[in-house]
Amino acid sequence: MAYKVTVDAGHGGFDNGASYNGRKEKDDTLRLALLVGQILAENGIDVNYTRTTDRYQSPSRKAEIGNENNSDLFVSIHRNAAYEPNAYHGVQTLIYDRGGIKEELANNINKELENVGYQNLGVEERRNLAVLRQTNMPAVLVEAGFIDSDIDNKLFDEKFYETANAIARGIIRTVMNQQT
Fold first, then answer.
1. Of 64, 143, 158, 162, which residue is the catalytic one?
2. Stretch 8-35: mean pLDDT, rounded?
3. Residue 1 scores a pLDDT above 50
4. Distance CA 157, CA 47 (A)
5. CATH number of the domain residue 22 falls in
6. CA–CA distance, 109 with 51 (Å, rounded to integer)
7. ∠ CA 98-57-77, rounded to 5°
8. Contact yes or no for 105/76 (Cβ under 8 A)
9. What's the pLDDT score for residue 179?
10. Which residue of 1, 16, 54, 112 is surrounded by the most CB atoms within 10 Å?
11. Could you count the other beta carbons within 10 Å of the beta carbon of residue 27?
């Protein structure tokens, strides 16, 4: 059975997301989402994107896109931010609630990103996020490091391919577990 994954690049258009020293979350997430999707496609997974250019869509619209594509999984990619620069660093993945494939997917992605060198801040429930609440399929929101952390930005820039590959490997590992 072929798996279909919707990859969402967080923010876009007029919505920059978090920013730090001229760096915009919407730009980092688009670059990362496109590479994650490319790696998934190269591994036989059917990929859809919520956006492939710098344009705005509401979080509800992003969830609708995943639903319209009848995706098996929805992966939203973001960068975290703290109340002040360099207060925190690490990766975290958000899910609507505990259990099932979504929690397995979140843990797999975090473990793979930890192998790249990011601190693993774990999996957290967030019931107020439209992309987690309004999708018909298991969904996760990956916080790929803190955009206001010099440590995470160095990893993100110097190990960009490895970061994308880690997210893709976490997805692939989860899909493979579902097929056995």
1. 143
2. 98
3. no
4. 24
5. 3.40.630.40
6. 21
7. 45
8. no
9. 76
10. 112
11. 17
